[in-house]
Every structure is written in structure tokens, then in C-alpha cells.
Amino acid sequence: MDTILTFAPWIWAAVFIITTLITLKVKDIDALWFSCGSILTLIISIIFRNLHFLFQLLIFIVLTIVPLLTLSKVIKRRHKKDNLKETSDALIGKKVLVVEDCNEFKKGSGTIDNTVWKIICQSGNSIKKGEEAIIVAVEKHALIVKQAE
């Protein structure tokens, strides 16, 4: 067991390098926790040289699994909302081709970049199939549009 304690920092350094490369390759927050857990365990193995390797392994597991189970969902949810907001903001001002009539009382549908969206006409607007509309806002899963000039 003394031999493994001698090489423990090198083992954790290798785990850190491997998990960091995997994190960069897959670009997923879940893989990041393994890198964080391994670097912290590396630091602990250097500070506490005589700490049993199985205890170091337990520390690594706790430092990896706890954030993985708790923080990943929160961060992914927030990131998804941020991406949706950025995507929504990017759509405003673009033209959409109406493929189903809409007016202020009836939802229709339109395409933008080969994607079909539900569209809702702004108050007082009525847009026929085949016409173009301008996106003025995005609400949930629908585009608010007005007639293109």
C-alpha cells in the first residue's frame, strides 16, 4: 500500500488530465465534475501524504458525485434558459414565411430557416399564406409577427 501512496499524486494528475481532455471533447458540464474532483483529490493527496488511497478514492467520489447530482441540473437549466433567450432575441426582426393564415384571433404557422413555428399576429394584423411577416417578439413557443412592409 505504501507504493500506491507514493504514486497517488501522479494517479490523480493522470485522472485530471484524462477527465479534462474528455470534458473538452464532449463539452458537457457533467464531465467537468470529474476534473474538479480529481484536481481537488490531487491537492489533498499532496498535502496529506499518508492518507490511505481508499480514503482518497472516497474523497474523489464524493467530490464528483455530489456536484454531479446537485449542481448539474441547476446549471443546465439556467444555461438552457440563457440559450433560449439568446436564440429568441436573435429571431426578432427576421422575416418568416407564413404557411398558414393568421390574424389577431387565430394562430397560424410560418417557417424560418426551414423550421416551422406557431405564429401569432400582432393586434390588428391579418397575414395570408404565402406572405412574409416580421418577427417582433417571441413568447414561449410562438413568434409574434406583424405584416412585412
Outline the fold blueprint.
Elements: H1 2-26, H2 29-47, H3 53-91, E1 95-100, E2 102-103, E3 108-112, E4 115-121, E5 126-127, E6 132-139, E7 142-147
Parallel strand pairs: 4-7
Antiparallel strand pairs: 1-3, 1-6, 2-5, 3-4, 6-7
Helix pairs in contact: 1-2, 2-3
What does this structure look like?
A five-stranded mixed β-barrel has the order 1-3-4-7-6. A two-stranded antiparallel sheet has the order 2-5. It is rod-shaped, with a radius of gyration of 26 Å. The chain has 149 residues and is α+β, with helices and mostly antiparallel strands. The model has no long low-confidence stretch (mean pLDDT 84). Helix 1 (2-26) packs antiparallel against helix 2 (29-47) and helix 2 runs antiparallel to helix 3. A hairpin with a 2-residue loop joins strand 3 and strand 4 (115-121). It has helices at 2-26, 29-47, 53-91, and strands spanning 95-100, 102-103, 108-112, 115-121, 126-127, 132-139, 142-147. The chain contains three helices and seven strands, in the order αααβββββββ. The protein has two domains: 2-89, no CATH class; 92-147, Nucleic acid-binding proteins (OB fold (Dihydrolipoamide Acetyltransferase, E2P)), CATH 2.40.50.
Helix count equals: 3
Q: What value does the average pLDDT take?
A: 84
Tell me, what's the shape?
A: rod-shaped
Whole-angstrom Rg: 26 Å
Biggest β-sheet strands, sense, barrel: 5 strands, mixed, barrel
Residues in helix, %: 55-70%
Beta-strand content estimate: 15-25%
Quick overview:
By secondary structure, the chain is an alpha+beta fold. Helix content is 56%, strand content 24%.
